[in-house]
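Quick entry, no commentary yet.
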Amino acid sequence: MAVNFKNSETKDNLMRAFAGESQARNRYTFAASQAKKEKLHVIGEVFKYTANQEKEHAEIFYNHLKELAGENIHVDGGYPVDFSQDVSKLLRMAQHNEYEEHDSVYKAFGEKAKEEGFMQVANSFFMIAEIEKVHGDRFGKFAELMEKNQLFKDTEKTSWICLNCGYIYEAPAAPEKCPVCAHDKGYFVRLDESPYESK
């Protein structure tokens, strides 16, 4: 059933999604600051990397609203207040929120957009839902490493890369300080988890 966009639930869902993505970006930026305070540079970078992707999602949803430029869209929505000094808890809260967007929110928004005849919008919701699952998996992986005290150590020889200078260190644990640039171990990540290295 084709619906006039201005009177659609899809319009409201786009604004809800825009608000949610914008808030997620800020929550992750705040979490990155907390990680930096804890000298967990790598975790801070994970939050910042994801925050930048959330900004792009917000822009995609916002761009679908262009034809309503100059109007106010009033919507209700529930948004998480995730505050903790514990970085592993921040990772778990972020994981939960990302899975919720994937499992129910964006899939439902996509189905509604499809039902109302807005296939391009539906596709944005469905594809971004899949990205949110990747985000949830990423946060969960790093939370688990922290909870098991394995963020900077492994049971066998591992390649660690300093994200500051690029030095690669081979050992079961990251060094306390990088022997090249003297940055602390919070700058080290397993080489196979670095987003920019060949796998």
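second:
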Amino acid sequence: MSDAQKVADRRSAEPPGANSVDRFFRITARGSTFAREIRGGFATFFTMAYILVLNPIILGNAEDKYGHTLNGAELVTATALVAAVMTVIMGVGGNLPLALAAGLGLNAVVAFQIAPLMSWPDAMGLVVLEGLLICVLVVTGLREAVMHAIPQPLKQAISVGIGLFIAFIGFVDAGFVSRIPDIANTTVPVQLGATGSLSGWPILVFCLGVLLTIALLARKVRGAILISILAMTVVAIVINSVADIKSWGLTTPKVPDDIVAAPEFGLIGDFSLFGSFGETTVITVVLLIFTLLLSDFFDTMGTVVGITAEAGLLDDEGKVPNLGRVLLIDGAAAVAGGASSASSATSYIESAAGVGEGARTGFANLITGGLFAVALFLTPLLTIVPMQAAAPALVAVGFLMMTQVKNIDWDKYEIAIPAFLTIAVMPFTYSITNGIGAGFLAFVLIKTVLGKAKEVHWLLWGTSALFLVYFAIDPIEQLFGVK
């Protein structure tokens, strides 16, 4: 069947009564409704709004080579602006419920590895270069080809791994589990709560939120995730008004004195595209770009596959709809993030919260992006949702994404072992890229020892070689004097 015929078939499947917005986003055609898309947009925003606080903290507390720091208020504006614009563009151009904002992990690399070697404008220029390279890989078709080369079982494993990862993020961010400071290396790495047990009002809010969310999901209540977030936020505000608790974390459930805050655009456009080459060696710049690019490349790949799989949008061959446009917009987000001094922006796995709420199209992004735009002026008001109220949504979404594990053939070891490593390494190392790399390397190795090396797509060989470099990046950087 030709592409034109496929398009005609899809159009014929759209109900005749659908309005222009419905037809553009294919809301009814994908089995969704405007109400579900709106709820999904709100749910995604509330689960990722923490970035408005966390990104300025990470970037604002770091100094560049010359001892300069970035202004916190300007970072909030840059973070919100990039998230708003790129999320809307993804919704309109990619038509997927996939929100974007400054990438965690990537911002830490910029703050603590790149900035100490050069000025802030030079560091952000490096991010812009990385984003431009991503766009080149998309335009040449290489990035899309890599995604198509991944076997379907590994795509399912990526989705399951992201589910466990996002659930673990929820448990950690809520304080339900915490890292154990252990100089002697004599205990397990994490424990229940801060002291080995559950205590404190914030933890109670989280536990109640989990119970409420799973109860609503079990009863198939529409809006279960969003209802839980809003209800627990109200509970947290009431508790905090009585007890004035200091242990909520980044955001405190307290109605602010000043609701409106004027945005400050001082950092927008403050970057130097090639300034980094005058600050350090060429090999250092190349390795830094490689570190950013590989992490951005595969984090996005895993997120896109995981979100679309959970939304039921993959076709029979496991391909993502509008993939080329989606990847190009994601690359452009990295450019926009660097050009705005917000660090590289990327697709967010928290978008799964919106999918869990029923979002299936880019219309949900208009809501999420609109809320980030509102945050430019109402940041104090929109950051009163504590992580303990939003984290239950991540746990619930982890469960929903975990259900895809049944589609993996666990009796076929050449698939099962790479799938297991993909699933396990993501949450255990707190990295989507690490999980994908472990799965790729295991898949290539097992196929080779079984005499089936010819079955491995050449792009998987190439990306596996890159992952070998990625996993050995520290000794390589030490060899070339980067560290």
